[in-house]
Amino acid sequence: MTALDPALVTDWFAAHARDLPWRRPGFSAWGTLVSEFMLQQTQVARVVPILEDWLRRWPTPADLAAAPPAEVLRAWGRLGYPRRALALHACATAIAERHGNRVPEDVDELLALPGIGDYTARAIAVFAHGHRHPVVDTNVRRVVARAVQGVAQPAAPNARRDLPAMEALLPDDRAAQRAFNAGMMEIGAVVCTARAPRCDECPLGAVCAWRLAGYPPPDAPPARRKPRFEGSDRQLRGRVMAELRASDVPVGETELVAVVPDPGVRARILAGLERDGLAARDDDGWSLPS
DNA sequence: AACACGGGGTA
DNA sequence: TACCCAGTGTT
């Protein structure tokens, strides 16, 4: 394992970083938190417009905490995984009530908040507050696997290994570590992509262990069949949620039959949404939670 | 360790 | 049409 010169990453990032809202000077810690929640599951291009509307409407955690969940779910729209909108709302409530309406700086305090795990806690500590931590997402794991370890694909995610591996590469300097974390993610997102890496554009091209080794192929993945999306409960949940978002009044059984014809499946979908706090039933039908 | 969880994009 | 993307929480 050759040491990686951090300047290769930070210099490239300074010259090639995409212009994104959360990279603007003065972008708030709260804005960074909201952006990280949205980016957990959704591509940059889909997040940007929703994020900007969201922050105009709810500029601080207390503003979001005061909003009814139904409005939060409508604003989340088609970003996907609507449970995360609820987690963000709960997170805002906790910050407003227990942290004086200020986004915590400490990783352990962040990890204790709803919807924040290993990645998001460190991303906020680093990008919102400038603290020094390894930030490891799937892009970083792929870049480290290739450039440092010389293998095509990273092993299964494991914080016990992944965090020390990134820590070992991280520069000490406060500004440089921030640019290094952001730069490694950016390289993974736009250059060292999973399927068709653009090695001729890569700032690590001259030192990449995988490239230098002649691009050894990945180990054969264990045969494992993936669930199809078409017709899945996931797809049906999404369609029911779209109906609820679109309606000002409770949605009755008749309309839901058109979305999920099978009575057993329909009952299962609605029970799941109710259990997750995404839908509520009253005498007139189903609504978003008030 | 495996699964559940949306929705859109690419080959 | 088939496959890919990706972090958190639960089991």
UniProtKB/TrEMBL annotation:
<dbReference type="GO" id="GO:0034039">
    <property type="term" value="F:8-oxo-7,8-dihydroguanine DNA N-glycosylase activity"/>
</dbReference>
<comment type="similarity">
    <text>Belongs to the Nth/MutY family.</text>
</comment>
<keyword id="KW-0004">4Fe-4S</keyword>
<dbReference type="GO" id="GO:0032357">
    <property type="term" value="F:oxidized purine DNA binding"/>
</dbReference>
<dbReference type="GO" id="GO:0046872">
    <property type="term" value="F:metal ion binding"/>
</dbReference>
<dbReference type="InterPro" id="IPR044298">
    <property type="entry name" value="MIG/MutY"/>
</dbReference>
<dbReference type="GO" id="GO:0000701">
    <property type="term" value="F:purine-specific mismatch base pair DNA N-glycosylase activity"/>
</dbReference>
<dbReference type="Pfam" id="PF00633">
    <property type="entry name" value="HHH"/>
</dbReference>
<feature type="domain" description="HhH-GPD">
    <location>
        <begin position="38"/>
        <end position="190"/>
    </location>
</feature>
<keyword id="KW-0326">Glycosidase</keyword>
<dbReference type="InterPro" id="IPR003265">
    <property type="entry name" value="HhH-GPD_domain"/>
</dbReference>
<keyword id="KW-0227">DNA damage</keyword>
<dbReference type="InterPro" id="IPR011257">
    <property type="entry name" value="DNA_glycosylase"/>
</dbReference>
<protein>
    <recommendedName>
        <fullName>Adenine DNA glycosylase</fullName>
        <ecNumber>3.2.2.31</ecNumber>
    </recommendedName>
</protein>
<dbReference type="InterPro" id="IPR000445">
    <property type="entry name" value="HhH_motif"/>
</dbReference>
<keyword id="KW-0411">Iron-sulfur</keyword>
<dbReference type="InterPro" id="IPR003651">
    <property type="entry name" value="Endonuclease3_FeS-loop_motif"/>
</dbReference>
<keyword id="KW-0408">Iron</keyword>
<keyword id="KW-0378">Hydrolase</keyword>
<dbReference type="Pfam" id="PF00730">
    <property type="entry name" value="HhH-GPD"/>
</dbReference>
<keyword id="KW-0479">Metal-binding</keyword>
<dbReference type="GO" id="GO:0051539">
    <property type="term" value="F:4 iron, 4 sulfur cluster binding"/>
</dbReference>
<dbReference type="GO" id="GO:0006298">
    <property type="term" value="P:mismatch repair"/>
</dbReference>
<dbReference type="GO" id="GO:0035485">
    <property type="term" value="F:adenine/guanine mispair binding"/>
</dbReference>
<dbReference type="InterPro" id="IPR023170">
    <property type="entry name" value="HhH_base_excis_C"/>
</dbReference>
<keyword id="KW-0234">DNA repair</keyword>
<dbReference type="GO" id="GO:0006284">
    <property type="term" value="P:base-excision repair"/>
</dbReference>
<dbReference type="InterPro" id="IPR004036">
    <property type="entry name" value="Endonuclease-III-like_CS2"/>
</dbReference>
